[in-house]
Write a structure and sequence with these properties.
Blueprint (H helix, E strand, L loop, with lengths): L2 E5 L3 H14 L4 E5 L2 H8 L6 E4 L8 H9 L6 E2 L1
Parallel strand pairs: 1-2, 1-3, 3-4
Length: about 80
Amino acid sequence: MPKILIVDDSRLARHMTAKAFRAVHPEWELVQAGSGEEALERFQEGGFDFATLDLNMHGISGIETKQAMNLHCEVPTVL
């Protein structure tokens, strides 16, 4: 079962993204993070197959988050 990381500082955007994934693939595991920093903490859990990242977030940006994630392993990502 795929494990997806959804990262956005907007709670509404995270909710809508998760809702869209669940509508098509209710069996997928969805993990949400409200910041780049939280995303990197969650990413340490491992096992992610895909990630969606908000480009402009408070703190570290989506691009900076993706660069940090790539230090561990590359995961297909949509910014």
